[in-house]
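Progress against Task 2.4 (sequence-to-structure conversion) is shown through the following example record, which the project officer requested during the mid-term review.
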Amino acid sequence: MSATEFRKRIRTALANETLQIALDANAERRVNGRVNALASLPNWKERRQRAHAVRAEVIEHLDEYLEKFIARAKANHVNVHRAANMEEANRIIIEIIESTRTKDQRDKQMLIAKSKSMVTEELDLNHALESAGMRVVETDLGEYIVQLRKERPAHIITPAVHLRRYDVGKLFHEKLGVPYTEDIPTLVNIAHKVLREVFLTADIGISGANFGIAETGGICLVTNEGNGRMVTTLPRTHIALLGLERIVPALDDLALMLSLLARSATGQKLSVYTQIIHQPLADQQRHILILDNGRTKLRNSPLKESLYCIRCGACLNACPVFREIGGHAYNSIYSGPIGSVISAGLFGSEFVPLAQPSSLCGACKDACPVDIDLPKLLTRVRAGLSPITNPKLPTAGDTGLSPISKLFLWIYSRIARSPRLFALSQKFAWLGTFLSSPFSGYVRLPAFTGWGYSKDLPGFAAKPFRSRWRNKYQVDTYTRTEVKGVGVDAQPDALPIPVSLVSLFTRELTAVSGQVIQTDKNNLTSTVIDFLKSRAIKRIHLEPNILDEAALSKVGITVSHDPDPAIRVGVTKAICGLADTGSILAADGAGSPLHASLLTEIHIAVLHISDILPSLEDALPLTRETKSAVFITGPSRTGDIEMSHTIGVHGPGEVIVILYA
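Structure tokens generated for the chain above:
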């Protein structure tokens, strides 16, 4: 994309009033949510530096970690494939799908249920599969919406961030033939009903993977709606796509990444569903496709640090440019600050102009949970330091800027390198504000600069920052010496009161819309019966050896140990609970507890108080010997329509933990 075309897209985005409202709402909620979530992690800055070191270690010794991951995954009976580029990846995936056809499916159109994955967007996989005669359905709500509109995702976390509720209502009315509505829960329920049938009848499930775990050969998927669990659990064949850089050395490192990922991405302490998948389930094939597609070249370039990214989207929400123009203006799979770097690094010189509008303010670096120096990388893209070997790639002397812009930047660089000149320029800069637009308080720049098409720059202050800072510092110093209790030695009135693990678990689960019912071992079955009676429920999916099935039968409650989508309630045993997030851990086993905790409207989990652990770090080792396990943090939810928090999407709308002693 040329710089001229990019400017046209920017002007179009700035003039789109609906888009501006949507982007403002997204930025405000995401940024505030991230700040509040990180506040619950007192040592998050230390964790951030540790995460940076882990990602640097992996990228530096990537071949070794990949070799270890692949060996362990194969030992787990998972089929592992490697693809150098887009064409090879698509060919491998189509071959896998075709190999699963039975004699009865020779003439059948294969149905592919797909969970959200930026790697599949990178491959244009949907188009490749459809060209091969297959039907592909995106099952993430935001992805489903943009698929119906034949668009790309507008945000790495919230694909339909650019749309309002009336856009979705009109779309569903036209494409699905349902009555027009702007009620968001109703729209979510419409998508639930349509996609439910897709999940139950899909031949193949395709997902991404947030991380591959070298220590165990497992993969980790992080989702909120439940569609990720559906496509990895129900179809007889599951294909996971993993960028080769997305490896963590061990479970401890995974815990570190997860503690930062959800907080940075959605403002949650932990996503609703954090899956750890090691082996295929019974009668299931599992495949992992590891994709290069330019990542090796990127690793051997000055843009290597961009491979540290864990795809949280925080830099997009913080970036003043993305917050004004949105994702589609970039015309790339990846947008925002990180997208401007990796698009140029992976896809070619045509994406170099994406780095030009950046203000280099540093907000993206501050927001990054793994401390990627994005301003540095953006300047390297501008200087033509992309790994793509292309004779048309701009060099340091050919950045796409106009001669006047180059002159301005040259003058600015000379002034900025001299403290005296810079201080002097500050004293007179306010004159530019007055001369360009008297009394308005803004600077109006000419159109040829690329700025000011619809927005003005804030004016320069009449009194430089240095002068104001000196005055304020003197006042603050005086205040601190005169007012008692204001200085750094001031002590809090009282120390925090310790909270028991049970109380903390109850508080955290309640905060994410879950429910805790406390009882004792002798009354466990009767407590569940009372709940079922209150809901007039006569049939349940029950994991064996938890409740007294004879007692259930006496009161007319029928028990099934097999998955049945018609059953409203699933009862499982929680392996453990996490006090700091209110999560519970479920794993594959007799009676299909993964299905019982997924297909039903209501999930009841039985948990002994002694099995409540402090945090994820303590619980992850329990997943080592499982085929598939999931940390469940409240009921399924989505925020894909106008960032409106809606409970109950593809997974249960209620999660009740029966906590007994």
